[in-house]
Specification:
The chain is α+β, with helices and mostly antiparallel strands and 93 residues long. It has 4 helices and 3 strands; from the N terminus they run H-E-H-H-E-H-E. It has a single domain, classed as Ribosomal Protein L30, Chain: A. It has a 3-stranded antiparallel sheet.
């Protein structure tokens, strides 16, 4: 049985973790880039595995958008900028 102190400590840790990972890079569908290019870009820029990148590419194609990376703003900002430089349609939220 947990005491009240350990429950409150656990809640604080959970809240802090959620706050530091609240930002996302969202990739949007476009009619310009090929599946292969999107996959290669996600592997290079977002450090996805081949499987992750393929899944994200398909989700973007069929759903119109997909969260491709979550984390701290200082980590995501340069990644999102690089995706934009490559000609992909991405936003940081």
């Amino acid at each position: 049985m947990q005491n009240e102190s350990s429950v409150k400590t656990e809640e604080k840790i959970t809240t802090k973790t959620q706050q530091t990972n609240e930002h996302q890079i969202i990739l949007h569908n476009d009619d310009v880039n090929t599946f292969d290019f999107v996959i290669e870009s996600l592997i290079t820029v977002c450090e996805h595995t081949l499987e992750q990148a393929e899944q994200c590419a398909f989700i973007v194609h069929y759903k119109g958008k997909c969260t491709v990376k979550t984390g701290e703003l200082k980590d995501l900002k340069p990644r999102c900028s690089k995706l934009l430089e490559l000609g992909l349609s991405a936003e940081l939220v």
